[in-house]
## 1
Amino acid sequence: MGDRTSAESALSAVFNRRLFLGAGVVAVGTAGLAGCGGSSSSGGGGGGGGDATGEVSFGSNASDEVPKKAFEATFAAYDGGTVKVNTVDHNTFQEQINNYLQGRPDDVFTWFAGYRMRFFAKKGLVSDVSEVWDKIGGGFSDAIKKASTGDDGKQYFVPLYNYPWAVHYRKSVFESGGYEIPKTLDDMITLGAAMKKDGLAPLAFADKDGWPAMGTFDYLNMRINGYDFHVNLMAGKEAWDGPKVAAVFDTWRRVLEISQPNSLGRTWQEAAQSVAQKKAGMYLLGTFVGQQFKEGAERDDLDFFPFPEVDPAVGADAVEAPIDGFMMAKRPKNADGAKKLLEYLGSAEAENAYLATDPNDVGVHKDVDTSKYNALQKKAAELIGGAKSISQFLDRDADPTFASTVAIPAFQNFIKNPADAASIAKSMEEQKKSIYTN
Amino acid sequence: MTAVETAERAPDRPVVRRRRPLTPGRVLLHVFLALTSLLFLFPLLYAVYTSLRPYAETAEYGYFSFPRGLTFDNYAAAWEQSRVVRFLLNTLIIVLPALVLILLLSSFVAFGLARFRVRGRKGLLILFTAGNLLPQQILVTPLYQAYRLWDDQDWVLDRQAFIYDTYWGVIAIHVAFQIGFCAFVLTNYMESLPHELTEAALVDGAGVWRQYWTITMPLCRAPLAALATLEFTWIYNDFLWALVLMNTGDKRPITSALNNLRGQFFTDNNLLAAGAVIIALPTVLVYFVLQKQFVGGLTLGANKG
Amino acid sequence: MAVTTAEVPARDTPAAGPPGPRRRRSANRWTRRDKLVLGLMIGVPTAISVLLVWLPALASVGLSFTRWDGIGLDTISWVGLRNYREIFTIYPPFFPALWHNVLWLAFFLLIPTPIGLLLATLLDKEIRGTRIYQSAIFLPVVLSLAIVGFIWQLIYSTDQGLVNAVITRFGADPVDWLGNPDINLWAVLLAASWRHVGYMMILYLAGLKGVDPTIKEAAAIDGATAWQTFRYVVFPALRPVNIVVLVITVIESLRAFDLVFVINGGRNGLELLSVLVTQNIIGEASRIGYGSAIASIMLVISTVFIGIYTVNVFREERR
């Protein structure tokens, strides 16, 4: 797999985790120019003509083969008018989102739930879609609705799917080693020691691109300090240099002892490969990790378990499961058409059409057809369904400036020098105060 | 060149030129230079070698191995999948107008400053020369914001006269940035042209424009060719401007598009090598064909001083 | 545009103005149109340069005293020196980046520049095939730094790279050339030097061509060794070239960006000032004031060297 992923090391690599969904296995990229501009170059960033006859322009960051095809299938099943898709490279789309929204955005565009959604809502760069929610609201749980709501209590986001983060492993490795699924972190560390003895790297780990370590931090934080603390910490309301975050770093230090070394030069694809090749025992990542496993026996051998409990008083019922979906531009050229499209995208029908082509995620609609789910999808749906609270991900729950310019280097620093946790946390707090001022 | 002046006077004896015998020292020198040349060519040669090997072969035997079968498949794949043609075309759309404008505008300035006594001449020369030396990152933020502000004006919206995410926007900054260097080189060159040339024209009653266009410019073919070669390479190789000032991936020139191509299309090192060779080829060709101009341009600019 | 034409001989048109001193008369010989044309020829490029290069550069300085997320002009707020204070106190990547830039410069001055000078001296001798050697060594200069980054990743890559393929063949452990923050900067500097040597060589070759060969011969006849000739005769004569080389090397070191950006986005051991600017201003993180403050620091550093250069260039003008 080698350096397949270094495109990710571009500066927005942080937000890139879905970039290779599909591309990894589809390998030599049978896509035409999927990544770099997509179907309509004529419109540029702008939404093209926007006739009154119901054409809606759709800005898509789904530049990879699989999600791109999935959107084509989704729109093919839409009978409410034509959708003009303007696909932009995934990286570029996120890098330039500020600019895109202030320039000539498409009527409807792909985006993420979390602070990153509420931020643009607060800035007035996107439209309130509460009207759409009046019609589609019945199909979603309260948690999903909450995740689609801005600070002012109105909805700004229509969700499509999500995918959980969990500890992945190969069933055959666990069988042959006689390993058991750990229920607590202590179990996992004991298990790690056993794997080490058997010549395995216990926990695969990669952070060349900066964002994967955020998943480890989030889970440890939610298991030790609880979901509410996570939310407040991300919102800048809690201290990074307090005892609570210190406890997270202390625990993480223990986890690092069973983690694969040299993680800063490794991409997640390479780490996933080490699990696929049975060189590593476990790997904490989103379910998209499955893309690195060959379809068939190898993929069927892949399984996951929820991130184990650390403190029995806190439990393990918070799940990190980022939601992807859509927003509407501030001044859409075709507002009625855009709302109609969003109504469709917020339906079980649209989710079914999408998931039929991209089975790496799970639907968020109550009526989504789960009968076609594969085993992992079913398990993922159960995990999310059983969760008491759902977090997005550090870079979606926190201020983007903080996530990319503070959290990434800080975590990389911690991985390099785990003993420096105190000074790293202090520095994060100082920078947080400077960034979260308004 | 002040070099000659500072040097001590040569003795009044004519220098006898003779063919040097091939001493052991000379042989050693040749061996050293040949090895050094190979060392410098090595990374490129290795890229070419890797690009010609099938992925399956390198996967099995490793990259440090003798070839079993060479193939152009990687080139075919890189060419088709990444649609490099499209990006090369984008580069041309940017480079050609930029080249014309840069040479035209810089020769204007050079002509004005070299052939006339213009108040503030020195200040202007410093403005152009120093501007070209600024790191790009110093200008990039305000430039990007200014482009966006421009696009936000109502009349711009009405006429769709956008500048952000357009070829013209990228051409404009290349022109502004590169005029400096070319103006500097051309001013020096034009100053060295004898004044008698234009005097004759003056007698014929030629205006400023005719002095510039029909008399001065034809004499500047050599530096113009040198600058064109150099500027082609520089603009072709530029990475940052289009990266920041464009957001439609499909419009980006080849060098800026590179980073996105990697990972999406150039998924293994063999394919990546093929892509790198394809992208490097235009500048390498220009260099081999126009080597004299290239080196000439570089030293023209640098030697003054 | 203020244009006087005293130096240029008068045009032979019917004398329209009153008789007077020659200089005065000649100035009047230029038609309005000529003055306008000349004004435009100088004015338009000047305006472009001021508008797109100098104003943005100054605006960076202005923005460095503000806080701005880049969304709407009304959100700009004046914060005085706060960005600078924070960059110097609580922004961990700043000093590593500054240090890496300094290392970059020192490395360039100490390794590829002398090598370039050495090669130029060797190639300046009358030897057969000098053109071929020159072409080979100079070739990397025509490649973009982004491509240089790609080509060298073929060599450095942990799993698919040449170096690791070779050293593991001999039983050594693979080295994480680009991921290990203790070595990745040096690996990158080697790649950057590959390109810099040729550049320096060509500059020095041109400089050496300007050194009168007879002095060298004279020195040799006087019994000077090759080194003494170089040290006491040739090198002093290269002073103007050395200044150019110094300035170009400083500017190249400050501009270094593409190479580290394509390798890992400029993090984890490859931080540079130019990368920090980019990280703060493009992308979702938009701390315009912060990024501008780092850019302004770069401006100050480069101004010093650009100053040295222009003073040198234009001192000669005064002759």
Note: Chain A touches chain C through 45 residues (CB under 8 Å).
## 2
Amino acid sequence: MSAVLQNLVNQPYKHGFVTEIESDIAPKGLNEDIIRLISTKKNEPEWLLSFRLKAYQKWLTMNEPKWQNVHYPKIDFQSISYYSAPKPKQKLASMDEVDPELLRTFEKLGVPMHERAALAGVAVDVIFDSVSVATTYKEKLAEVGIIFCSISEAVQNHPELIQKYLGSVVPVGDNYFAALNSAVFTDGSFCFIPKGVKCPMDLSTYFRINTEGSGQFERTLIIAEEGASVCYLEGCTAPRFDTNQLHAAVVELIALDNADIKYSTVQNWYAGDENGVGGIYNFVTKRGLAKGVNSRISWTQVETGSAITWKYPSCILRGDNSVGEFYSVAVTNNYQQADTGTKMIHLGKNTRSTIVSKGISAGHSNSSYRGLVRITPTAEGARNYSQCDSMLIGDQSGAHTFPYIQVHNNSAIVEHEASTSKIGEDQLFYFSQRGIDAEEAVSMIINGFCKDVFQQLPMEFAVEATKLLSFKLEGSVG
Amino acid sequence: MIDKNSRTILSVQDLRASINGTEILKGIDLTVKSGEIHAIMGLNGSGKSTFAKVLAGHSAYQITGGSVQFEGNNLLELPPEERARAGLFLAFQYPIEIPGVANTQFLRLAYNTVQTKRGKEELDPLEFDDFVREKMKLLEMNPDFLDRSVNEGFSGGEKKRNEILQMALLEPTLSILDETDSGLDIDALKTVANGVNQIANKNNATILVTHYQRLLDYIVPDFVHVMQAGRIVMTGGKELALELETRGYDWVNANKPVNGVIA
């Protein structure tokens, strides 16, 4: 690797700082008492406690998955604290009452909340550690009947919706980390778009892990009723810590007839230092159910952070003519590991899915695409197009593609394309011969490589993603 | 054109260069003055493309001896991007493809970077669009070129035209064309040659690296150099190229003058 690339790759993590806010932390460890404590703290109805306990019982019988192409020391689930909440001084009536320290944190992250909300027309449901602190634009959304709030609030105010849909796409025993999440989730976002409503603005959540050693178990549930549509943005950053932090979120999306849900993520959790020490373990279950006819679920993700990423945003295409999409950019550097991809399960007739995956590996990192396309016997006329491209930077990084294609209906058309390229001396020489610096060259090559995915992102997110990638890869090509 | 008021643009003395420990350039001497067009001819493996890349600063080669002055400055101590900004241009034999990056975006970045470093004004996207379209007429290029990804899916001729377009935009003092004629049909060759001829003037200079004489039918050189085993073994006027064409490179071996120069 050239010195320029080295420098680019080795820029320190910008968002490495800890906000001092008094936290209310549960004792470390996991057992039924802790789960009851969480449920009591959150004043939950009995059925939700049962949901949690059932998940916990499932989890006890399960083993941590081993099939993914990542390596990490065994996680001690008893050394994690499963509940931590900023101590509420009083009920917050407006943004002005939010802890100024917290607001400063967001400023440092480049998320001036009210400005962003006002200027960009984005409602920000801020998750800080595990409890929602403030929700903006709620009233405006309420005018058209949209519910956008923390999942805790939704449990209190709309229990019938939560009871109906929670766990309906990702069952409590779906997988090891989803079971854990179902048992101990503390907060997350809830969004309900009623019949016929097009959400007038993009909805956005900024996540931030704070208290050292507190695992984060977010739970997100988004429902779009018949003919409804919504764009949802999720962005994450985390402060620098040396001990690994587990993040095991579950996201469930449900689209009824003719509904449309577009879910975009830019993920920049702390990735560990240049020697692979520290960083977030990001083990996430994201799944959308395209339940109704002509419904659409679209996932777009830009994964740049975390020491380990284990994530497969998936679509179950149950409704006839329903559409599933997955657009992904995964960047790894230093000793980061990513095993990410999607699952497209075709059940309905004439269902269509598109997969565009771009993996970029620099340093000593490893990136794997793992994707399943399953055409079931009922999926008459189903179509899938998959494109998986990998780009290697330097000669110490690895890229792998694991496509699983299962076709059980002869009328299906399934296409898969894959490519691997490398940013090498000759590419950089071409740019430098035109007077262009290596940094700019890498940035331009990468952005070109990721264009098909970036153009799926909302404007301001695309800008953020472009900057983030350049920042992540500065100094890494040689 | 040879002009008595010309100044020296490039002065190469006893230049030696290796790749992975193997010496490729074994003592090259060459002086290029403003207003001149030089052709460097030779068989594959004679070192002519290496010479072009070494002048442009490709990092795969190690300089093991000699010196290169470019407009009076030590060229060899500059990184490749600074050589480019100082006015040295290399038209590549195999231009790389940059998927997803619109040609206009790449051209504008290159143009504005070089302009800024030369202390000149940048052009905004609209101004640049007018400017580049004007230059494209020179090469009879379809404006569609601007929106396509850099060199991706371009034919051989389109890639070479794109190289000459960059040359026209960056207004180099010294242009080195590495096998620009290879892979071109006769029409494309004429268009490219026409572009090069229009860019060449009494203040700049051109080095054509080529295997064949046919490019020199359209771009007439003031000097022709024959390269062999990492050295310039023969230098002459434009008629030397024709001589080579009819007699072949073996003739050079038989008639190699002791001092490397024939009249």
Note: The longest strand of chain B covers residues 8-19.
